[in-house]
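Help! Submission page says 'invalid entity' but I think these are all valid:
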Amino acid sequence: MTRLCRAAAIGWLLVWTAFPAGAEPPYITVASTTSTEQSGLFGFLLPAFTKTTGIEVRVVAVGTGQALKIGERGDCDVVFVHDRPAELAFVGHGFGIDRREVMYNDFILVGPASDPAHVDGGNDIVAAFRKVAAAKAPFVARGDDSGTSKAELRFWKEAGLDPKTMGTGWYRDTGSGMGPTLNTAAAMDGYTLSDRGTWLNFKNRQNLKIVVQGDRRLFNQYGVMLVNPARYPSVKQELSYKFINWLTSLAGQKTIADYKIDGEQLFFPDAKPATG
Amino acid sequence: MHDMTDALVAAWQLVLSGNSTLLGIVWLSLSISLTAVFFASCIGLPLGAALAIARFPGRNAAVVVMNALMGLPPVVVGLVVYLALSRSGPLGSLGLLFTPAAMVMAQVVLVMPIVAAIARQIVEDLWREYAELYLFDGVGRVRTICSLLWLGRLSLITAVLAGTGRAVAEVGAILIVGGNIAGVTRTMTTAIALETSRGDLALALGLGIILLTLIFAINGTAHVAGQAVRRAAA
């Protein structure tokens, strides 16, 4: 028994030392959104980058709000999110530098095939929101400070409505990521705003389908920026710039455009020169 | 029922394919949790035994606190460890956030009270029985603790197993401090959470079945080992 204990102890000490050891490849940590991870884009894009540069990219996929918070605390090197006003504030407060736009996709309104609010086939998102509220049809909201959540709240505001004060439990705030919110909407035959990428890669659709798309206001811009190295010297500036430059380069942009699910392109590259 | 069959098929396909990603995830889960249990036991067993034989004012309060800490919510532990390891936190310079080492730390905090509290109960019962012998022989405290732990070793396996169960099954703490990074900090439980959120319920449940099988295997091994020792002692 003593020998057994000792053997086990030595074994686990070996494992313990094996963790940080080994010639680790150079890597950067990127805080990004669930939409880029869950749509499968990163699984396609990052290996291509690692292949050309030998730099590993470690992605922490959370909501845009939380991703920016991780950057604010200096816990990642690069932030790659989709909420333009919040990103500009992040750069404005000196947490990040060198923000660049990388790509866009669009939001869609997803709803049950039975369509109790009669919004199917529309292309005016604000009008659709008004109809859903008028019908008091179940609406499942992210409520997690993500880019999608902020966009949804903007549409309610444009519709001149405050769903949280409209009672009777039709507006349901899940406080969770896009996938869990879609799971909830599928289970309760509700409407929800989703990014197209997560929807295309989502497998538990049940009765859900796209009911509203194609409104210009549904445009969803993604931006990338470096966490301010002047504030956090731990930021891997050189490696991170290689990543940012690659994303906005011809090769990176083409790889983004090449990512398709069932022949459908998910993200549209639109990199411009540096903006901040 | 249909979902269950899909999950079983998914689990089988995963296992049969010998998928290297899956093997990596399983290996990482076990490494992290068992390392955490090892450190938690190194601290928790002596601590529980010490509290069992100690007599000091406020001892009852200490026992209550230790028992209560068995119910530490993993998310809270994860958050506290996250804030401590963050670049803006007191241990930020170590650069441990979003690494397996951070996940081990969080799990040590979660598991240690469980091991300590159960060990305290087991050792206290032994102490009640043998206290006079130890006191009569004038054995020192440290040797008494070692001796009592040795005496109760077979029952103490339960304490360690309870801790292992907690470590292998929890998701809240390691999700926050590990970040669920593919290939680096993605474990069985965080992978299940991810697949659920992607709506791939069959794959999520399939991973769950594999995790359960592993937990059964660990407990089975411990049981068989315990019986072998008991037989050798008889």
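Support: the input was valid. A stray whitespace character was the problem, and the output above is from the cleaned input. The mean pLDDT of chain A is 89.
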